[in-house]
Amino acid sequence: AWRKFSAKEFTTKDQFESEVVKHIETTLARSLFNCDEAAAYAGTALAFRDRLVIEWNRTQQRQTFADQKRVYYLSLEFLMGRALDNAMLNVQQKDVATAGLEDLGFRMEDIISQERDAALGNGGLGRLAACFLDSLATLNYPAWGYALRYRYGIFRQEIVDGYQVEVPDYWLDFNPWEFPRHDVTVDIQFYGEVRKYMDDAGKQISVWENGEVVTAVAYDAPIPGYGTKTTNNLRLWSSKASHGEFDFTKFNSGEYEASVADQQRAETISAVLYPNDSLDRGKELRLKQQYFWCAASLYDIVRRFKKSGKAWKDFSNQVAIQLNDTHPTLAIPELMRILIDQEGLEWDEAWSITQATFGYTNHTVLPEALEKWSVPLVQQLLPRHLQIIYDINLQFLQYVQRNFPKEREMLGRVSIIEESEPKRVRMAYLAVIGSHKVNGVAELHSDLIKTTIFRDFVKIYGPDKFTNVTNGITPRRWLHQANPRLSELIAAKLGGYDFLKDLNLLSKLEAFVDDKEFRKEFQEIKYANKVRLAKYTKDVHGISVNPNSLFDIQVKRMHEYKRQQLNIFGVIHRYLELKSMTPDQRKKVQPRVFFFGGKAAPGYWMAKMVIHLINQVGKVVNNDKEIGDVLKVVFLEDYNVSKAEMIVPASDISEHISTAGTEASGTSNMKFVLNGGLLIGTCDGANIEITREVGEDNIFLFGNLSEDVDDLRHQHFYGDYVLDPMLAAVFASIRSGTFGDAGQFSALVDSIVDHGDYYLVSDDFKSYVDTQKLIDETYKDQEVWLTKTITAVSRMGFFSSDRCIDEYAEMIWNVEPLPPQQNG
Ligand code: 26Q
């Protein structure tokens, strides 16, 4: 009976089948005679979509009538992955559908894999937003996500001759999960000028006029919670030419081409996701995207608020807006503009409403990733916003001056405007000043932002404005969906699937750590997951790997700070050692497969060079007869969310080896441990909290600490260090051409030998190699290893994104859940 929560649901597989058939024959107008997997996918998706839509409408109605605060999560990225499997599991109808599809002659797995990933994000930040949506719905919070409906998501990665090649990701030709709302549009202005005048009461009024207008059209996607009727909304804005009089004049006067060009220019705004995840390039189109999305979303939020008939002083009791990094910071001056220019509020009232409404999440301390927009660019594109930003800055600096009269140098340091040539707007400072709370995403990171980039602001506002919310992951996708057998085993032991909603229940697994039967099944599941990855590796990459090897995985965006180069240098070191051994010695070595995966930003040539090196090393090592199965290197092409669901459950060890203090949190580390893998990692980001939870014995930490990084960098700068001798041998081998023409990798080697080794690869190399040795030794005793993995899994409850969302709700948003009626 607990299944029967939906008004229209498939109670039998026959009912499901007839729904699928109906959709194939009518919605798709296809004959069943040539129903292929694509059509079966479409029919299944549409059948489930019907189920979601009913509860989606009800949820929205319930949220409208409830006099309650809502959360708006503004993120330029939502890395959703596939929706069908998630929908089937969240509404708990996958079994019925699996049986139905089997009747129709299809295997569920094949049907699920027909779907393309919704890849509207770069990496961790975008996937975090997607996990948050799942938790918000599951916990019944009234919440919306707002983003852009990119026509092209993150590029598809192909590896050609060992090099990354980017292929456009046109993903929208069939997307059953989105609903165009052609009646929900907002006209967004760019450029133009500001005219000031006095009204009758002698008050100064600003009017932004004569700009160019682009229309935002809403597209909605349902977000079903797990085991609840709550179905929230993700609203994506698409840009199109506005059809004002201006257009028609052009069209009629024969300027047909010009009119079409206008149209294309408008559509360009939401055309493509920027593929940089760590470098701000200051492109005008990116700024346009940001404003277009912020303005459309705020208009929508304000319109919804005004319908409630409440007074403005109630705005922040009804609305919480979370800024996912600085990308939506323009929402701050935009809300000020709406309140002052359009609604006629006084500055002070508008400002206190604005501050009370926004919260800002920081995801990086790397200076090159902090957004700064050129003042002339903002002046041209958003003249009124620049005035408001200057006014915010003036008020803020006056406040600082009053409170810290003796610290005059502080004013320049904290000014929103950087006095460079050209001047630039520091978006992170604007976000801090315009929000009531600022949070980092793991404890170390939240401490670091208080002592580095936001140090002065802690002094100005006091420490309470800054807080930590350690990231989390949804156990629905990252355990139940990605690893159904493990989920089932856990449910069998814990007496049901309650742990999927309350992940702390995993702690009860620890009682089974010595249970023979349980251990055997746990190990069999890991093995089966490794077999699946091995098969994929053979089928797709033509590389045979033995699933009895230790599977070592590093999958994440390619970046120097994440140090894939440290990993591949370690592999080369291992290869050189193996080559120096006798065959008998080699036989005693623990066989290992190193899997890599990840995209490099298209302009990031150093990251691309590391991809190339990995592939070159793979080519040499994998074909070395002497080495055989003892060492293999695989670069998994086009790492994305759906591939992660297969890769993550297959690890014995995964690598999270960033230079200490650089990785804000990391979230795949959590996914790997939850799926019964151990970590090798630095004392960085969430690795530290994972260690605290699972215990030092159940993780492999190495390397220098973040507090030592500055000193070490200084030593490199003054030449006061010795290159690690094992690393020197690795470089000698690269330079001798072992992995192809050495010239191709000289910039990489030089960055460490001659240019300061900014990411401290040399300093951590020995510690890394030693720890890898320890892993080999530990793995040889499979019973010891198994105990560690089971113990670690049972202690991962803290890292559910449900815990994380509850913390945001309480500490930052002050919102309550709105559960559906029991029998409604
Ligand atoms: C900025 C300016 C211009 C164009 C693009 C960008 C841009 C886009 C994406 C900058 C950064 C990103 C993404 C950053 C990101 O994914 N950060 C990761 O966030 C995770 C969730 O908090 C953390 O776990 C990771 O540690 C952090 O690297």
UniProtKB/TrEMBL annotation:
<dbReference type="InterPro" id="IPR011833">
    <property type="entry name" value="Glycg_phsphrylas"/>
</dbReference>
<dbReference type="GO" id="GO:0030170">
    <property type="term" value="F:pyridoxal phosphate binding"/>
</dbReference>
<keyword id="KW-0808">Transferase</keyword>
<keyword id="KW-0663">Pyridoxal phosphate</keyword>
<dbReference type="InterPro" id="IPR035090">
    <property type="entry name" value="Pyridoxal_P_attach_site"/>
</dbReference>
<keyword id="KW-0119">Carbohydrate metabolism</keyword>
<dbReference type="GO" id="GO:0005980">
    <property type="term" value="P:glycogen catabolic process"/>
</dbReference>
<dbReference type="GO" id="GO:0008184">
    <property type="term" value="F:glycogen phosphorylase activity"/>
</dbReference>
<dbReference type="Pfam" id="PF00343">
    <property type="entry name" value="Phosphorylase"/>
</dbReference>
<keyword id="KW-0328">Glycosyltransferase</keyword>
<dbReference type="GO" id="GO:0005737">
    <property type="term" value="C:cytoplasm"/>
</dbReference>
<comment type="similarity">
    <text>Belongs to the glycogen phosphorylase family.</text>
</comment>
<protein>
    <recommendedName>
        <fullName>Alpha-1,4 glucan phosphorylase</fullName>
        <ecNumber>2.4.1.1</ecNumber>
    </recommendedName>
</protein>
<keyword id="KW-0021">Allosteric enzyme</keyword>
<comment type="function">
    <text>Allosteric enzyme that catalyzes the rate-limiting step in glycogen catabolism, the phosphorolytic cleavage of glycogen to produce glucose-1-phosphate, and plays a central role in maintaining cellular and organismal glucose homeostasis.</text>
</comment>
<dbReference type="InterPro" id="IPR000811">
    <property type="entry name" value="Glyco_trans_35"/>
</dbReference>
<feature type="modified residue" description="N6-(pyridoxal phosphate)lysine">
    <location>
        <position position="671"/>
    </location>
</feature>
